[in-house]
Specification:
Structural class: alpha/beta
Radius of gyration: 18 Å
Strand order of the largest sheet: 2-3-1-4-5
Oligomer: single chain
Largest sheet: 5 strands, parallel
Helix content: 40-55%
Order of helices and strands: EHEHHHHEEHHHEH
Length: 206
């Protein structure tokens, strides 16, 4: 029996919008694979992985700890305030992440049990990952609610929250680039209801 066509879905949204919690539900209830771009970027910086040697060559061996791994704090200090160096670092990491995502998607396509392939990234649109998705979801939460969540759950100051939010797309830009909007302002059960309604409608790639 031929496998149903796998759907690639990008999930994005501003910081504090609750993407991780919703993806946890999807992972436990649907035949899917989920790739978190930030986690994948960290994985590719491990010794022997695609970004390790190029980053050490670019930033210097002083970013490497005694265990041979890249020290995140040392790497951040090296980049801080140097916009040109940041551009070079991103030019190494982002293409490697995109290539690995495509590789994992190709593997998932051959797995009969995987019908949904989710890519999650705060900078999904900015980094061009939306171009490899069949559909884009925007997890919407108002700025005021996100601010309260970030203060409560992560202990962020107002200044840090503002700085992070200012570095991300506006609500209008998110909505313009996404076909599906999940309103995650209220109870988790309501967000889950929306997700079930969306995904059950596929049943399954008629």
């Amino acid at each position: 029996m031929k496998k149903a066509k796998m759907k690639t879905i990008g999930i994005t949204g501003g910081v504090g919008s609750g993407k991780s919690e919703l993806l946890s539900y999807i992972r436990n209830h649907y035949p899917c694979e989920i790739v978190l771009a930030d986690d994948l970027a960290k994985e590719l910086q491990e010794p022997g992985k695609a970004c390790y040697a190029p980053l050490v060559e670019l930033l210097g061996k002083d970013i490497v700890g005694e265990d041979g791994r890249i020290l995140k704090a040392a790497m951040a200090d090296r980049i801080f305030g140097d916009s040109e160096l940041l551009v070079k670092v991103n030019a190494l990491i982002h293409p490697a992440v995109a290539e690995e995502i495509l590789h994992r998607r190709d593997i998932a396509k051959k797995n009969e049990k995987i019908l949904l392939f989710f890519i999650e990234a705060a900078l999904l649109i900015e980094n061009g990952f939306d171009k490899i998705c069949d559909e884009m979801w925007y997890i919407y939460v108002s700025e005021s609610v996100r601010r309260e969540r970030l203060k409560r759950s992560r202990g962020y100051s107002e200044e840090k929250i503002t700085a992070v939010m200012d570095s991300q797309l506006s609500e209008n830009e998110f909505r313009k680039s996404c076909q599906i909007v999940v309103d995650n302002r209220g109870a988790l059960s309501e967000s889950i209801r929306q997700i079930d309604q969306i995904l059950e409608a596929y049943r399954w790639q008629k």
